[in-house]
Amino acid sequence: xxxxxVTSDFVELLEKSRLLxxxxxSDALGQFELTQDASPVDVATALxxxxxxxxxxxxxxxxxRHRGFFIDHYRCDHILGTGGMGWLYLATDxxxxxxxxxxxxxxxxxxxxxxxxxxxxxxxxxLLLNHPNIVRTYEYQRTEGVYGDVYYVVMEIVPGLSLxxxxxxxxxxxxxxxxxxxxxxxxxxxxxxxKGTIHRDIKPANLLIDTTGHVKIADFGLSKIESExxxxxxxxxxxxxxxxxxxxxxxxxxxxxxxxxxxxxxxYSLGCTxxxxxxxxxxxxxxxxxQKLEAQxxxxxxxxxSLVEDLPPEVPAILQKMISKRxxxxxxxxxxxxxxxxxxxERSPAEFSFDKVLIQRAEIARKKIAxxxxxxxxxxxxxxxxxxxxQSTIETSIREKPPSADEPDR
Length: 410
Description:
Layout: H1 7-17, H2 22-31, H3 40-49, H4 55-62, E1 70-71, E2 74-83, E3 86-93, E4 99-104, H5 113-128, E5 137-145, E6 148-155, E7 160-162, H6 163-170, H7 175-194, E8 197-198, E9 207-210, E10 215-217, E11 224-225, H8 229-239, E12 245-246, H9 252-256, H10 263-279, H11 289-298, H12 314-322, H13 334-341, H14 354-376, E13 389-390
Parallel strand pairs: 12-13
Antiparallel strand pairs: 1-2, 2-3, 3-4, 4-6, 5-6, 7-9, 8-11, 9-10
Helix pairs in contact: 3-4, 5-8, 7-10, 7-13, 10-12
C-alpha cells in the first residue's frame, strides 16, 4: 500500500498489521484526543510515546507496510541487525511474553538451496551448543509466508554491541579488559570444540558484549560440524574448499583448505581478534583480500608492544603463540588460551545505551533499504558479489556494507 495520507488510512494499516485491535486503536485515539483531522505522523507518535507501538513498527506503517510484523507467534519489535545472511529482529513471543531474537533468511535467498543450507547449519550448530559464552539458539523453523516458505531461527536476546562496534566507537580496550574478552570467547570455543563444532569465522564482529562486559560468540553460519557432512559439502559447493572466513582473521591453513581445519584455526582467528582488541588495528592492514591472505600465510604483524603501552610481557607472548603460522606450535586447545589469559584478565563494563543502539541500527536498515531501491531505479549504490571471504570494518570507521536485500515483507 502507498504511505498513509490521512488518519483513516493509517488506522486501516494498523488494523491489517494485527499489532493493535480496533478497540485498542479507538481507546488510544480517545486518550490522546486525536481526531480524524490528526495526521498519520501525529497518531504514530502518540502510539509510540504511550508504548503501544515501537518506533520500528510505526516507521514501517508510515511507509505503507502492514505485513511482516508477525512470524508464527513472534512479533517483531525492533531491528537488531542486517546482513547477507538475514535480518535480525528483537521480537516478543506473544504466547509467553518473553523477548527473543529472530533471524530470518532474506526473500532473495529462500530459493537458494546452498544459502538455505548455510542458514540451517548456523541453526544446527546453535542448537547443539549450550554455554554462557555462546548465543543460545532455541528453535529453527520453516513456515509458510505470503510469498512462500520463510526460514527463521529463534535465539536469546543479547542486549549489546559487537566487539567490532565497541572498538570503532571507543577505540581499543584496556589490556585487562581485552584479555578478559578473549578469555571468555576462548571458554565458549572450548565448549563448541568439545561438541565437534569449529566456528571458522571468529572475529570482533562475531563477539557480542553487554554492558557488564559479558561476551557471547555469535554466527555459526560457516561452522564445521563433525556430524553434518552434508552441510559441509553444501558450503564447499557455494564457496569452494579453499577459503571460508574473513581475510583479516583467517588462519593460514584455512586459506588453503577450509574443510580440513580443526579447533586450532579458531585459536589463530581469536589471536588476531586479540590483536585488534588491544590495538584497534588489523594485524595486516592491507588493501586487497589477496594481499591479506598472503600475509596471513607468510608475514608477522607489527609487534603489539609498539602499539600498546605498559603491556605485561606475558600477554604478547600469549598472543604470538595464538597466531603462530603452524598449528602444531599454537595453543592446542581453547581451554589452554583461557587459562593463559586468566591471570591478566579483568572484567570492565562497556558503556553504551542499548536503546540508542536500536535506534541507530534501525536508521542503518532504512538507509540500506533506500540504497537498494535507488539501485533498482538507476541510483548509485553498489552491490558486491557473494564471496566466502570477507574483510573487517575496523580501521574504516563505520563503513556500511552494501544492502544485502529488501527487508522481509512476509
